[in-house]
Design brief:
alpha/beta, Rossmann fold, 8-stranded antiparallel sheet, 25 strands, 22% strand, binds 5-amino-5-deoxy-1-O-phosphono-D-mannitol
Length: 614
Amino acid sequence: MVLELPPMCGIFGIVLKKRSAKLGDMMVRAAERLSYRGYDSVGMAVANGDGAIDLRKDVGNIAQTNEQFGYDRMSGDRGILQLRWATFGVPNTVNAQPLFSPDEVMVGAHNGNITNDPFIREKLEREGYKFLTENDGERLVCLTHKHLKNGKSPEEAYTAVIGEAEGDFASVFMRRDSREVYAVKMGSSLYLGLADDFICVSSDLPSILEFTRKYVRLENGDLVVFNDRDYRIFRLPEQEYIERPVTVSDIDIENANKEPFAHFFMKEIHEQVEGTRSLLSLYGSTGVWKDFVEALDKANRVFISGAGTSYHALLLGTYYFNKIARLPIFPTWASQMLPLYSNTVGEGDLLVLVSQSGETKDLMNVYDWAKEKRVAKTFSVVNNIGSTLALHCDGMIPIYSYLEISVPATKTYTNQVMCFLYTAMKLAERRGIAYKGITWDDLHRVPELVRETIAAAEEPVKELAPVLLKHPSMHILGQDMTHPVAMEGALKMKEVVYNHPEGMYSSEFKHGPLAVVDKDYPVLFVSLPENEDLVLSHMNEVICREGIVVHVGQPSRGYDKICHYKLPIPAVGNPYLNSILSVIPLQMIAYEMAIALGNNPDQPRNLSKTLTVD
Ligand code: M6R
């Protein structure tokens, strides 16, 4: 199955037969459908004939910006819009898209990332372009503008643009002097909607199905040029015009965003392939990790805090920093940080605050305390770069997972862990430490290995789910770097199955909890290759008491012989890759069990995505 990049910003463009007051209303309805893709800022640009382009944009979601600007009353014969989920440049009015070319003849918007943005910027500056924003979209607009201004056709101009701009993105542009709108798909999803009196293009299908059931699914490398009646699709790599099939959809709009999955939870598990790829590509091209590594290196002592899944990720990160970079770190739950360390944190120490949302109250309490006492510097590791923590801490490193919609975290956990492994390796290099056990080549295998891990777990989770469902309680054990993985697996299960799995350190199990084991009590062991003898011995302690033993990890003859069930991961033979991949079968078994019970894993009872209360 080919998946697009995870949802990140939304774009939409439309051409009507003639000027109409319904343009603004249609664009707002499309924006509402796309609102899950970004709420850091929204911008709309409309034009009529060859009159000036009316561009309005600001921070906020579609409801707020529509109230501010009256988008739904804007009239014209064509328009484009963008909803931003910030990845480059803080969310502010200047960085909001769409963006003008310097002469305001052209306006454009994109989603995704231009990974060689710094190089394009430098090159265009040498040619006289001046930039007002930190946003890579501005470079894309100027690059396109440059080629169109030189007299090239859209086909020629975009051929040149994709020869220079690297990354996964989709973009939409319109001009003052043309009724045509152009859109390009280079990695992010893009659909063309067809109706009798308009043609439109959008990042997702529901925003098109809102107006018409006829659509064309565009493919990577497609440039589409359209007005209200006609469109042509030009293949940029092959330099030829092609036809694509027109589909008449019978899809239920409400479910279309999750397609081809029934829930965001499973979609986001699959998005770990592209999410990890994005992180590696963006860290590599932007050097966004440098400040974090420097802060870690210079700190007197490092304290790291987070809640829930973010805590499990930072706990695994603590192992990486110890093993790879020889950096000792104090890991705590955010709510535990002050009771444990407030009297000992001092000048020169660093507080690292790890949070998907960047808004969790338990972390805000630590930040507020540090700010008031002025005892230590703060650094956030966040997914939402427009969040309070991201904007207020002394430093910030993004994890580039893009929007996570399902309440239980899956893909953001994996990217948090990837962030820590990446920065631990960079820190070791900065300190001249010759670490062993993981190489950059290994790390770059992660996206494909995630894909293989998902495929390998699909059948085994179906077999195991009915067995585990018979038991209201179980243990998930991990040793060394799989301890946080076991805790995260147990949390996933609790969140969506509503049972009671306990994730704990395997060697601790015999110090009391072993007493719960009797006939058929399930214990899942998450293994590392080098711990096989120890894990086998822990398994035998359960087997001889007639418990059910499940092995989660790389297959081996030893496990095959004694385990009742297996949730395998690929035989990577590498403890670090093992620690990243082994959470995936646990996420998947939790999903399988939730579905069997009829629970909605996207919205577990009693929970909310962002906890802004104590
Ligand atoms: O946004 P944060 O990472 O700060 O959220 C922390 C926890 O609330 C969060 O991880 C929670 O445990 C999730 N529901 C886990 O799936």
